[in-house]
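Example 3.2
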Amino acid sequence: MTEHQSSIVAALKLLDEFMAAFNARDVEAFEATFNFPSIRLASGKLVTLNKGDMTADRFTTGALAEWDHSAWERREIIHAGADKVHVDTRFTRYRKDGSVIGGFDSVYVITKENGHWGVKIRSSFAP
């Protein structure tokens, strides 16, 4: 995979930005980490996300009602190419007091489109 080391570095940097924007509840910065349309498969549902679909209430309702922040526990490269990287991840969601809500395995497909690296597909066991 050293042949595509720059793609791997870009994908991991993008995932850092994704998590930072998510934890900051910064809708604009969070949307900037995607390549739209973006697909999320979780809780038995396939959802297509488009620019403008993200709203501030996304960070405070449903499965995120008790959520304060998340952190990556694992990010391992499965495959890498010039314009796409598959990453096996595990992240943990935490409450404000630091207690764990849960840890979730997922796969992220990070793509480079028009020079922009972004999340194109996520398949997660998170609610």
